Amino acid sequence: MRTHLGRTMVKRSLLFLVFFMCISAGERHITAQDDSRILVNVVLVQLNIAVTDRNGNYISGLKPEDFVITEDKIPEKIATFEEGNEPTRKLIDNAASPKGAPRVPPGDKTAAATTAAALSEIAGPGTSGAKVFILFDTSNYMYRGFVFAQDAITDFIRQLADSNQLAFYSYSRNLSRAVSLTGDRSQVLRGVRSTVAGDDAALYNSLLLTVKDAAGLTGKKAIVVFSNGPDNASLVPPEDVAELAQSTGTIIYMVSTRDAEAEPSSTAVFERMSKATGGKAYFSKNWGDEAKAFASIREDLAHLYSLSYYPQPNPNRGWRTISVRLTGERLQKYHVRTRDGYRLQQAQVSTNTGYPATTTQNEQTMQR
C-alpha cells in the first residue's frame, strides 16, 4: 500500500530509522581466516500466499513450479517452499550462492561455511508452523464484551495447530506484553484470563511495537488483532504501521466489532491494513461472529503457502512491487492473495574483503 494520506516523508524516515536502530544492536560479526571482519547478509523475501477458488475454498497440493513471482517485473527464483504446516523445503543449494545471495571469496572455506550456515538458518529446513502474536483490545471500548472476547480468543488458542508458537499482548493506552512467544498453550491461556480493562485505545502505537517484535523472526509470522473500537490515542499513523508490516513480511488479521465498523474511517483503515499485508479484516456483530472470524483465521494460517526468494539485482532502492500468479491454464481460475510489495531497507556495510556484506535482522538473517 503506497498511499500515505498526506503524511510527510520526514515522519516515515524517522519511523524506519528508529526501527533499524533498535535491531542493529543484535548484529553479529564473524572473523574469517585472514582476520577480516565479515558481516554476512542474506536478504530473503518471504511471501505468505493464500490460493482460493471462486467460493473461497482453499486450494491445496500446489507445487513450487505452479507459482511465478516477479519483483518490479523481474522474474525471481523460489528458494524455499512450504504448504500449510508442512516442513519447509529448500529449493536452492546453499553452496551454490544464487544471484541475490552473498558471494564468497574463492578458496575461503571459513566464509563459505559461514554463508552456508546463514542460508540454512534462514531457510529453516524441517521447520513448520507460524509465529502468531495476539493483540487484544482492553481499552474502555471493551467493557460490555470483555468476557465474550476472552472466550473467543481462548478457543482460537486451543484449536490452533500445535506446530504454531504464540505470544499474547494486550493494549489500551499502553502495550502489555503479557506472554512472550512460546509453544506452551497453558501459559498463553493464563495470560488471556489475567487481562483487565483499561482506558483509551492506542491501537496503532501498540500494533507498531508488535510488528517490530515480529519483524526479526524467520518463517511465517502473523499478528491477530482483536479491536472493539477505533483508535483514539495513537501518535503513529496506520499507513506507516502497514508499510512496516509489509516490508517485514508480517501478516495482519483484524477482528473487530460493529462498534468499530460504525466509524467508516476505522473500517477503511482496518481493511486496507489487512489487505496490504496479505491478511483479512472481519467485523463481528456478536460473540458468535467473533468465534467464526477466529476460526477463519485459523484455517487461513493452516492453508497458506510460504515461498521465499533472493531478489535479483534491481536498481530500485525504494518501494518494490511484488506480483504472484499461477502458471498453467487450469490454475488461472483461482484467486491469489498476498502482500503486494515492500520498501527496501538500506543496509550498512562492514567488510574489507572486497565482497558484499551487510548488516542483518535477527542477528544473521533478514527477511522482507
Write a structural description:
The chain has 368 residues and is α/β, with parallel strands linked by helices. It has 2 domains: 31-105 and 305-367, no CATH class; 130-303, von Willebrand factor, type A domain (Rossmann fold). It has 9 helices and 18 strands. The strands form 4 sheets. Strands 3, 6, 7, 14, 16 and 18 form a 6-stranded mixed sheet that branches. A 6-stranded mixed sheet has the order 10-9-8-11-12-13, sandwiched between helices. The chain has a 4-stranded antiparallel sheet with strand order 5-4-15-17. Helix 3 (146-159) packs antiparallel against helix 4, helix 5 runs parallel beside helix 6 (238-247) and helix 6 packs parallel to helix 8 (264-276). The longest helix is centred in the last third of the chain and has 17 residues, at 287-303. The protein is globular and about 50 Å long. The relative contact order is 0.23. Mean pLDDT is 78; it is low at 1-42, 94-98, 102-126 and 347-366.
